[in-house]
Design goal:
Pfam families: EndIII_4Fe-2S, HHH, HhH-GPD. This protein is mainly α. Helices cover 56% and strands 0% of the residues. The chain has two domains: 7-29 and 144-217, Helix-hairpin-Helix base-excision DNA repair enzymes (C-terminal) (Endonuclease Iii, domain 2, Orthogonal Bundle); 38-137, Endonuclease III, domain 1. The protein has helices spanning 7-25, 38-47, 53-66, 70-74, 78-84, 91-108, 117-120, 128-137, 148-156, 165-175, 181-194.
Amino acid sequence: MAKRETKAELKARVDHVLAALDQEYGTEYVCYLNHETPWQLLIAVIMSAQCTDARVNIVTADLFKKYDSLEKFANADLKELENDIHSIGFYHMKAKNIISCCRDLVTRFGGEVPGTIEELTSLAGVGRKTANVIRGNIYNEPSIVVDTHVKRISRKLGFAKAEDPEKIEMELMKVLPKEHWILWNIQIITLGRSICFARSPKCKECFLREYCPSAALH
């Protein structure tokens, strides 16, 4: 039976992991979804659910030219918008949510994207994950985004145990220093896309190997 890690040992391991991530990937805030305005990012994030950022960026390249204002999205024809975004999957629900969300932004928030979890999650198609992307990228508000990469790798590292993304978010908030919350998502996505794959992680090539309890299993 493995010896249980003390709080001091966990903190030391977290510090090592964060230092290694910073050294490998840098500390620049990067957003993988192309956008020029806060409302464009919000729409792109709504579209990105169960879809790759690369695919969303292909679609929004034309979409944001056609609908170049929040008002145009708010007044969009549902069937036409569905056709415009049909290649991203779940486009029926996403088109409906985008129109509803943009109408609320225009009527309730004066055309501005709000900055609180409560206000953001009151919008159609916006859950905690989407809200935290906005808070981190637009308002530079310390927030942890739990996507599939963050969920999988945080659990592999032993920094979280829960299955539910919201519970994982709360676990990570206790483990990670606040100044690293936004970076965690950026760096872990990069790690998940290049080394720590879901099906066949390249543990032998991973620079976090000595700090990861799961590495010994591969």
